[in-house]
Design goal:
single chain; 10 helices; two-stranded antiparallel ribbon; alpha+beta; five-stranded mixed beta sheet
């Protein structure tokens, strides 16, 4: 979430206060350290350790996630953000001064927008550990005698981790919201198949690809029989559940590369690329049979339905043929199926 990095920062700070409250008496008694100094040193040390180590532990991947767009680029371009971190860090050691702590911040923000959060936490942890090693080796003029500078340095490392982590959390939350928004726009809210506009757009693109290779395709128009009667007898809740189950059945019968859309009400459509007319007719008959076998339990009653199908098959698609035209032909075939008694499929060919 957008607040995840801030919650981690505050939580680590509260835990550090508790740890410092418990450790200060021990440190003061064992090393005769003034309580204020002991508390500050213990607090800053704990807070820094938490902010370096906890993000990697909490962001440890437990499931497969899609790769960010930047990770699909050439390896050199993919490595550019982390290489920039290394370059800026070397420059900070060369120049020194109070600003050296945050020289690598722009590159870290680039990493936050380019890598997964777990990768970012590994980079920030490695960077902070390298700075601690540099302090231990005397690359920076911080010693235990300068305890306020040491406390400032440790809190500064916490802030250095917080900034990129906050950007990465916000960016991931934004991408997740955009994904949900695109799904909501392109899919029917009730059945979760493609909505009319998205189906027409993606179906036309699919047909264009088939026409480039002069492949065949089939377009189906499907209409649940006597659906108004089902709504009247069982209520709209029962009808909605039937529509959901019917769409799930279509998804299971058709192939992964086939498109399914809800055009409105109880009317659905499908585009099946690269299939001959015999196979397309067999698929339609399977849908008919699966619909006969389908039932929905609602208020201690079973709701059954049948479906009429209009099938338009084109053996060799040409560039001028549009999905709208094929849907019209399939719609004519659908009316023929209804006129012939429903619960059947009528085929047209071109």
């Amino acid at each position: 979430r957008q607040s995840s990095a801030l919650l981690l920062f505050v939580g680590a700070g509260l835990a550090s206060i508790v740890a410092a409250a418990m450790g200060t008496p021990v440190l003061a008694a064992a090393f005769h350290t003034p309580p204020g100094k002991a508390f500050s040193m213990w607090l800053s040390s704990e807070w820094m350790n938490y902010m370096i180590l906890l993000p990697s532990i909490l962001a440890w991947p437990t499931r497969s996630l899609p790769r960010p767009a930047s990770e699909k680029l050439f390896p050199l371009l993919q490595a550019m953000p982390v290489l920039m971190v290394v370059v800026l860090e070397l420059i900070s050691y060369w120049m020194g001064g109070p600003g050296a702590l945050v020289f690598s911040l722009p590159a870290l923000l680039w990493c936050a927008l380019s890598y997964r959060i777990f990768t970012l936490t590994i980079i920030t942890a490695a960077l902070c550990l390298s700075k601690l090693a540099a302090v231990a080796l005397g690359s920076f003029d911080f010693t235990p005698e300068h305890f306020l500078e040491t406390v400032s340095f440790r809190i500064g490392l916490c802030m250095l981790v917080l900034g990129p982590l906050a950007v990465a959390s916000t960016y991931m939350a934004r991408n997740d919201l955009m994904h949900k928004l695109r799904h909501a726009v392109n899919h029917d809210f009730l059945t979760d198949v493609l909505a009319r506009g998205a189906f027409l757009k993606q179906g036309q693109y699919l047909l264009q690809r088939c026409s480039q290779t002069q492949s065949s395709a089939a377009v189906l128009m499907l209409d649940l029989d006597h659906f108004k009667r089902i709504n009247d007898n069982h209520g709209h809740a029962g009808g909605d559940e039937l529509l959901r189950r019917f769409s799930l059945m279509l998804t299971s019968v058709l192939r992964e590369q086939d498109l399914i859309g809800r055009l409105g009400g109880e009317e659905f459509a499908a585009v099946i690329p690269r299939v001959d007319h015999a196979t397309a007719l067999e698929i339609a008959k399977r849908i008919n049979q699966a619909t006969r076998d389908l039932w929905v339990s609602h208020q201690n009653e079973r709701i059954h339905a049948t479906v009429s199908i209009g099938l338009m098959h084109v053996q060799t698609l040409s560039a001028h043929q549009s999905l709208d035209e094929l849907l019209q032909q399939a719609d004519h075939a659908l009316y023929e199926a209804k006129a012939q008694g429903r619960d059947r499929c009528e085929l047209r060919q071109a």
